[in-house]
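Hey team,

Filing this mostly as a record. A colleague (T.K.) asked me to run one chain through the structure pipeline before their review meeting, and I want the input and output archived in the tracker in case anyone asks later how it was produced. No errors, nothing strange. Just documentation.

Input sequence:
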Amino acid sequence: MYNEIFKDLPCLIHPGNLKTLVQRWLEEDTPNFDYGGLVVGEKEEKAILLCKSPGVLAGIPFFDAVFSELGCSVTWCVSEGNFISAVSQPYVQTAVVMGKARNILLGERVALNCITRASGIATIARRLTEKVQKEGWHGEIAGTRKTTPGFRMVEKYALLVGGISQHRYDLSSMVMLKDNHIWSAGNITQAVHKARKACGFSMKIEVECQTIEEALEAASAGCDIVMLDNMKPQELHPAARQLKSEFAQIVVEASGGVTEENVTEYMGPHVDVISLSLVTQGYQCLDFSLKVLGANSRSSILHAQPE
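Output structure:
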């Protein structure tokens, strides 16, 4: 059952930013003439959103915003974050869109692109959340900054609907010093001290480390989070234990080589965060379609087999 705490997630999204994003998407898809719109005109129509594969519904604020921009209304049959079981039946009616025919079709592909991708991300995120609960692990699974340009807001939002951490949203959200920063700065200590002078007490600093020696230097320099990167589980857990024994307040993150299949191997009493990019790079989209119920065309679609 969908967790009640996530009902207010849409409040995270700045209305002005969302409107700007939607306008860019629509302009990209129809930069000049809408030839299909000429064919269908402005008669009022109803269209139904069909889900044809099982998974977690996510992305309602973006779907709604697309059609709102076009003067259409959306009524939902399934709530955000609920699991849709499109297995025993060919499809599940998920929403109804009302508006002028040409406007529904102007928003169709843009809105579907949002809902299919967001739901795909939320579905794999939910599976990872369930693994954490089953293992009884104290830590968090997190995404990464490896997102699609121009689509980060949707992808990060979907991670939260699925129940995992989004990690830092962007370069300004948290200081993360990776290998290139360290090499350019000279060493870990210099990099951490220079970053701290700029970000002060109000921002956390994370350092990417390849060895326990680097991790201990980063912790000694005053970082808040140590990422133990590309360590096998048999290397990770002893390193995390040693780090915690000397710096109890340090947050330990494991990253690199983590998959949905092996993620439980990285869970342990001294690991606080496991980050993996597959949640925004290797997910499978859910299958949705939007069908107009015209008087002469698809009025019986709910009783037909999907295309």
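Quick notes for T.K.: The CA atoms of residues 49 and 290 lie 5 Å apart. The mean pLDDT is 92.
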